[in-house]
């Protein structure tokens, strides 16, 4: 967090107080922290951490010894944490092939969807849930 704030200042910006880190537990009890670079606000240099390719999202799993291990990193267009009474599910906004779209669409023609993450215990990392579980948004047509 300090590195991001320092980098903002070094680029003639001013870090704004905004929530860009979240904490919760997955359904199987694993504790995690999310750093959403896209939610970091740097007044005077808004595109420092995000652009047309989205922004990086890093997810860290809390280990039994209190340290953290990075278990997911990807550029996405948004993050949502869906909370229940006992756990949380991470949803990431992605587009194009990540939503099953074929070919090489332009950025403007890419379809968008939200995909959740699931824990792969064998690989010890978070992965996208199957595409069949994706949430697709309605597209607005220009006439």
Q: Care to describe what's here?
A:
- The protein is mostly beta strands and 143 residues long.
- The protein has one domain.
- The protein has one helix and twelve strands.
- The protein has one helix at 2-10; strands spanning 14-15, 21-25, 31-36, 42-43, 50-51, 54-62, 68-76, 78-83, 88-95, 112-120, 125-128, 135-136.
- The mean pLDDT is 86.
Inertia-based shape: flat
How many domain modules? 1
Q: Percent of residues in helical segments?
A: under 10%
The helix-and-strand class reads mainly beta
The number of distinct helices, counting runs of at least 4 residues, comes to: 1
Question: How would you characterize the largest beta sheet?
Answer: 5 strands, antiparallel
* Percent range for β-strand residues: 35-45%
Radius of gyration: 17 Å
Distance between the termini: 44 Å
In round numbers, the mean pLDDT is 86
**Total beta strands:** 12
Poorly predicted spans: none
Output the helix-strand order: HEEEEEEEEEEEE
Topology:
Layout: H1 2-10, E1 14-15, E2 21-25, E3 31-36, E4 42-43, E5 50-51, E6 54-62, E7 68-76, E8 78-83, E9 88-95, E10 112-120, E11 125-128, E12 135-136
Antiparallel strand pairs: 1-4, 2-3, 3-6, 5-6, 6-7, 8-9, 9-10, 10-11, 10-12
Brief rundown of the structure:
It is built from one helix and twelve strands, in the order αββββββββββββ. The chain is mainly β.
List keywords for this structure.
five-stranded antiparallel sheet, mainly beta, 143 residues, 1 helix
């Amino acid at each position: 967090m300090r590195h991001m704030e320092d980098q903002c200042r070094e680029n003639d910006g001013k870090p704004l107080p905004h929530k860009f880190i979240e904490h919760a537990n997955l359904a199987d009890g694993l504790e995690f922290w999310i750093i959403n670079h896209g939610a970091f606000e740097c007044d005077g240099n808004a595109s420092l951490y995000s652009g047309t390719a989205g922004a990086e999202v890093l997810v860290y799993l809390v280990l039994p010894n209190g340290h953290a291990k990075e278990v997911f990193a990807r550029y996405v267009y948004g993050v949502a944490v869906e909370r229940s009474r006992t756990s949380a599910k991470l949803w990431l906004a992605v587009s194009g092939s990540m939503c099953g779209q074929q070919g090489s669409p332009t950025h403007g023609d890419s379809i968008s969807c939200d995909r959740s993450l699931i824990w792969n215990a064998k690989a010890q990392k978070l992965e996208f849930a199957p595409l069949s579980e994706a949430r697709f948004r309605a597209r607005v047509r220009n006439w």
